[in-house]
Amino acid sequence: MDSLVYYCPQPRSIFLQELIQLSHKPTDQGFSTASIHAGYEPDEYYGSINVPIYASTTFAQNGPNELRRGYEYTRVGNPTITVLEQTVAALEGAEYGRAFSSGMAATDILFRILLKPGDHIILGNDAYGGTFRLIDTVFVAWGVEYTVVDTSNVDEVKAAIRDNTKLIWVETPTNPALAITDIEAVAKAAEGTDAKLVVDNTFASPYLQQPLKLGAYAVLHSTTKYIGGHSDVVGGLVVTNDQQLDEELLFMQGSIGPIPSVFDAYLTGRGVKTLAVRMDRHCDNAEKIAEFLDSRPEVSTVLYPGLESHPGHEVAKRQMKRFGGMISVRFAGGEEAAKKFCTSTKLICLAESLGGVESLLEHPATMTHQSAAGSQLEVPRDLVRISIGIEDIEDLLADVEQALDQLPQ
Question: Can you say whether the dihedral through the CA atoms of 85, 86, 91, 97 is positive or negative?
Answer without folding.
Answer: positive
